[in-house]
Amino acid sequence: MANNTKPLRYADVGINLGDPVFRGVYHGKQAHEDDLDDVVQRALDVGCTKLMVTGSSLKESHHAVELAKQYPGICFATIGVHPCSTQDFDHHAGGPSALIKELRDLTLEAKESGHAVAFGEIGLDYDRLFLSPKEIQLKYFELQLDLAVEMQLPLFLHSRACSEDFERILSARLDKLPKRGLVHSFTGTIPEMEALVKLGFDIGINGCSIKTAENLEVVKAVPLDRLQIETDGPWCEIRASHASSQYLRDGPVIPKAVKKERWQKGMMVKGRNESATIVQVAHVIAGVKALAVEEVCEAAWANSTQMFGLGH
């Protein structure tokens, strides 16, 4: 990169850094040494200086806050219960009200200290009703939205095959949600995306959002001022079979990945996506939109840092 070129800046607004695989643990077994520091360093090395760690349950939200404390100014937490984990409310020792109280207490403390920047991951997932039935998801999406209104944090949202209910529930609270939020890992249609943008929400794009030719048409249509970039690691890597891979023929080089059994320090792990690969997501988006990658990165950086208050 020439000296007169401004370095690219990235904010990975969706990374599940609390997952045990980032500590070298797969299916309960230690496959290699804990390399979390290396994962964070590789992100920093590519200019990804802000990582939003997803809270998907009370336990994982606590974990996300701990990581925000461990990597101050780099990691920031989201706090909430994922739609597929909403049965946690009914299974909680003190019942749903006790879990809401614990979420409220954690959010208040972490918001005050600057460690939590969004409420979520909350939403609806009708593709995985076997994990949590529709009525349970709806009940606790609404209950958590009430808490989010109270906390006045931007939302970190999950939406799968549920656009009608999702839009209806959010629309009813728009006047109470001035900071709106991000619909992350977006895989919906162009009309669904346009409806969310009209409601004032941003759209999060990762490897899962650019798998198919239809996905790429949606990405092409996302307004630049509503676009944010994420990896959703350790999932959602871009694979050779994906429609997006055609845009990576001249794409940025990422560190070598090996099978976990052959891991050596400094290497990525096959099948374990991480924040350093955000450069590929940005490159694909730029290719699809026929824009300079610098323009895409600066827009996404501005959108993310402004919405979530991530600093400079």
From TrEMBL:
Q: Which GO terms describe its molecular function?
A: 3'-5'-DNA exonuclease activity; metal ion binding
**One cellular-component annotation, GO:** cytosol
Looking up CDD domains in the UniProt record yields:
TatD_DNAse
Q: Which UniProt keywords apply?
A: Hydrolase, Metal-binding, Nuclease
Q: Which residues bind a divalent metal cation 2?
A: H158, H184
Family named by the database record: Belongs to the metallo-dependent hydrolases superfamily. TatD-type hydrolase family.
Protein name stated in the entry: TatD DNase family protein
Native source organism of the sequence: Cladophialophora psammophila CBS 110553
Its organism's taxonomic lineage begins at: Eukaryota, Fungi, Dikarya, Ascomycota, Pezizomycotina
